[in-house]
């Protein structure tokens, strides 16, 4: 089975599971505690039904939308995700190239294995850099300067990781950075020789964007959870968000917002968008699925600030449901990471090809010619 035999994101997930050692696959796939929020993020879409209009001329379909200061060719972009070299040796650059090809935003994580500058070399399109605030506060100012020089178009401040969530799968599988076989995991690495060989042939691994800071790099082998708990600054407040908005001076999203109250605070701090997100169910478990958070946040700040649905998107209908509830756009992380793990750039391209085709077909069936026509008249809560 190859990526061309995959007909949905679920198929790409299965292929990724075949190709990755267990610690690596479960790092992508897992959540916190009992993984209720992880499951809820996708399951919540089933609680809503689309209400199509018929006898509408849908000869011309326009998927374009404007978000984070850029007009993009579909209402979906690539959310920032960490440590992409774990999943494929072409790492973040593979996804960045595909994002430009599809005319959408590529999000680069602070915890990427590819630098800001190297992504700028392979992607001339709109790019977002996601910021974690380290205890070494000088890094944040450095990130802003480097992103300006590399012509990134937007930033996102992640605010839901003051401490790492309880990601139990990582404990069970012995996940560490760089990945090292342990008594728990050696058999899985042996049974995935292609992945293991590529890791041996491309051995350089690190947090590419923090190498200027001796105290913030990866030294030796460490778990992801321990690295986060050692490095991230738990003292940040809305004052820091205000400072970042002023320092950056461009489109800024606050990523990890759950409530209407915090969405209002984001707007007051100078942000231009909120990414409604529970970090893929990897932080606080038992928070709502992302889609359920969209209506109250839109009702509170819609029209004043962009609202981005970041969580659980696996289908074109998921994107349409979020838009119908008032989201400006959606972003996906696992949706393209499964593709990356399944086949590098070809896998990412397959993921976006499938999702784009679903969005376009589903808009025709919904009776909408453009993203701007989709409204709450097209959706209802399932009775």
Polypeptide structure, described:
With 383 residues, the protein is α/β, with parallel strands linked by helices. It has one domain: Aldolase class I (TIM Barrel, Alpha-Beta Barrel). The protein has 15 helices and twelve strands. The protein has helices at residues 9-19, 22-29, 36-43, 91-101, 116-122, 138-149, 168-173, 186-190, 193-201, 224-231, 238-248, 260-268, 290-301, 316-324, 334-366, and strands spanning 48-50, 65-67, 70-72, 76-78, 106-109, 127-131, 154-158, 252-257, 273-276, 306-310, 329-332, 379-381. It has an eight-stranded parallel β-sheet. It has a two-stranded antiparallel sheet with strand order 1-12. A two-stranded antiparallel ribbon has the order 2-3. Helix 14 crosses helix 15 (334-366). The model has no long low-confidence stretch (mean pLDDT 93).
Q: Poorly predicted ranges (pLDDT <50, ≥5 residues)? A: none
Shape descriptor reads: globular
Radius of gyration: 20 Å
Which percent range describes the beta-strand content? 5-15%
CATH class: Alpha Beta
Q: Residue share in helices?
A: 40-55%
Can you count the beta strands? 12
- Count up the domains: 1
CATH topology: TIM Barrel
Query: Would you identify the CATH H-level superfamily?
Result: Aldolase class I
Structural class: alpha/beta
**What's the CATH architecture name?**
Alpha-Beta Barrel
Numbering strands along the chain, what is their spatial order in the largest sheet? 4-11-10-9-8-7-6-5
- What can be said about the biggest beta sheet? 8 strands, parallel
Average residue pLDDT: 93
Number of distinct helices: 15
């Amino acid at each position: 089975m190859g990526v061309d035999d995959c007909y949905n994101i679920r198929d790409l997930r299965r292929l990724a599971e075949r190709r990755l050692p267990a610690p690596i696959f479960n790092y992508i796939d897992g959540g916190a505690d009992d993984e209720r929020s992880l499951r809820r993020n996708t399951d919540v879409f089933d609680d809503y039904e689309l209400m199509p209009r018929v006898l509408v001329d849908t000869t011309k379909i326009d998927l374009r939308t404007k978000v984070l200061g850029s007009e993009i060719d579909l209402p979906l972009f690539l959310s920032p995700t960490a440590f992409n070299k774990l999943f494929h040796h072409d790492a973040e650059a593979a996804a960045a190239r595909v994002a430009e090809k599809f005319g959408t935003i590529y999000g680069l994580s602070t915890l990427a294995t590819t630098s800001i500058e190297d992504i700028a070399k392979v992607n001339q399109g709109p790019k977002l850099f996601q910021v974690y605030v380290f205890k070494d506060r000088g890094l944040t100012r450095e990130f802003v300067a480097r992103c300006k020089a590399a012509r990134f178009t937007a930033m996102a401040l992640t605010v839901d990781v003051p401490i790492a969530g309880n990601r139990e799968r990582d404990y069970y599988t012995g996940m560490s950075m760089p990945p090292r076989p342990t008594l728990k995991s050696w058999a899985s690495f042996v049974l995935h020789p292609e992945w293991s060989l590529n890791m041996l042939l491309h051995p350089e691994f690190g947090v590419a964007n923090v190498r200027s800071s001796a105290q913030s790099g990866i030294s030796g082998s460490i778990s992801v959870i321990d690295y986060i708990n050692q490095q991230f600054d738990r003292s940040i407040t809305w004052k820091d968000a205000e400072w970042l908005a002023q320092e950056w001076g461009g489109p800024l999203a606050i990523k990890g917002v759950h409530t209407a109250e915090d969405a209002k605070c984001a707007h007051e701090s100078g942000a231009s968008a909120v990414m409604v997100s529970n970090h893929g169910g990897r932080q606080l478990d038992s928070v709502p699925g992302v889609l359920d958070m969209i209506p109250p946040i839109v009702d509170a700040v819609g029209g004043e600030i962009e609202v981005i649905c970041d969580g659980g998107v696996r289908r074109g209908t998921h994107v349409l449901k979020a838009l119908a509830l008032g989201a400006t756009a959606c972003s996906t992380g696992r949706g393209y990471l499964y593709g990356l793990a399944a086949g590098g750039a070809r896998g990412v391209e397959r993921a976006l090809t499938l999702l784009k085709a679903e969005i376009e077909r589903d808009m025709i069936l919904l009776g909408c010619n453009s993203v701007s026509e989709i409204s709450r008249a097209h959706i209802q809560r399932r009775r």
